[in-house]
Design goal:
single chain, alpha+beta, elongated, about 20% strand, 2 domains
């Protein structure tokens, strides 16, 4: 491994670690002071709350730390004439950015993979510590030609389940169960009362028929995690749950645009940091002899914050359904990728 690769990588990682810790402490401190009146009284719960707050902050502090680390590293190298020395020794412009870019990309990939785990629900867990979350209530959904009403859903169990079976554009039966549990990708219902309507309603013909079953199975694949995701107001999902919800409800007439926006946010928005690392690097001056480095570094910080703010607003618009998620999340990241690739090929 070349010496400049080790040097650039270690210096970049050092600045990144310092900035990440500083921003995490700042975010956690502000959050604790803001919510001091609702802060948990138990020491163990308080520590758990702080840890969850730090996890929530990563989505904001991680990309900014990755970009700010490059700005600090490069401007210090410019001030000490290290950058121009590397170029004079034959290190190409593209080669010098490879170590910081790969570190930023690797850290970003790790963060994206974390969003496939329960880490993605850190915000939900944090709020539950200060405000006990009740069970989801009064849900009405369509699934595979059936309309389902759930009085209360709590985890993998539900009470007050009513299933309206629609056949040939008319109601064919109504089943109600006192309780149901989701096991083995199917709902196991208890105390099921079923009322069936005759196919041909004629005077003097067959009437309603009634049936009772102590236990029955129904609604295969009607995942409770997907149900809660549809009715959640905080748009909190993991990557796995978002994909499961989209697959479950995409063909059921349910609007899944906000779930797509959340999924794209977890998969693509973190790539903003490594792409901005590339773009900003190619606009850095070689030497500080003809520039005011303090003013220029300030301008780079402002540009980063403005770009991050624009992307953040577009994502919020996508999550609120104002614009389609492909336009609000994927298109800006794709534009950044194309521009960064253009700069790389330009400086070959």
């Amino acid at each position: 491994m070349e010496l400049y690769v080790k040097y650039a990588g270690l210096v970049y990682f050092k600045y990144f670690f310092i900035l990440l810790v500083a921003l995490e402490f700042f975010y956690v401190g502000i959050d604790v002071l803001t919510n001091l009146k609702d802060f948990p009284s138990s020491a163990n719960t308080a520590l758990l709350y702080i840890a969850l707050t730090a996890a929530v902050a990563l989505s904001y502090t991680l990309p900014l730390s990755l970009i700010f680390a490059l700005i600090l590293m490069m401007f210090n190298m410019i001030r000490s004439n290290e950058l121009v020395s590397f170029y004079a020794l034959g290190v190409s412009k593209n080669a010098l950015i490879v170590p910081p870019f790969l570190i930023a990309l690797f850290i970003t990939a790790g963060f994206i993979s974390l969003n496939s785990t329960s880490f993605a629900y850190a915000l939900k867990f944090q709020k539950n510590l200060t405000d006990l979350a009740p069970a989801s209530e009064d849900m009405f959904l369509k699934f595979e030609g059936k309309y389902i009403y759930i009085k209360a859903l709590n985890g993998k169990g539900a009470s007050g389940i009513t299933i309206f079976d629609i056949g040939s554009n008319s109601l064919s039966s109504r089943s109600s169960a006192s309780y149901g549990e989701y096991r083995g990708k199917i709902w196991h219902l208890r105390d099921v009362n079923t009322t069936s309507l005759p196919r041909d309603i004629t005077l003097g013909g067959a009437g309603l028929s009634y049936a009772f079953s102590g236990e029955s199975e129904a609604l295969k694949g009607f995942d409770p995690a997907s149900i809660e995701s549809i009715y959640a107001t905080s748009n909190v999902y993991s990557i796995k749950d978002a994909i499961r919800s989209i697959r479950t409800f995409a063909d059921q007439g349910v609007n899944v645009a906000t779930i797509k926006a959340s999924l794209y946010n977890m998969l693509f928005f973190p790539l903003f940091a490594p792409l901005m690392v590339l773009i900003l690097y190619y606009y850095l001056p070689v030497t500080g002899r003809f520039f005011n480095l303090a003013l220029m570094s300030f301008a780079f910080f402002i540009v980063t914050l403005c770009a991050w703010g624009v992307f953040f607003v577009l994502i919020r618009f996508s999550l609120n359904g104002v614009i389609v998620p492909e336009l609000g999340v994927i298109a800006p990241i794709a534009a950044l990728f194309c521009f960064a690739s253009f700069l790389v090929f330009k400086h070959r």
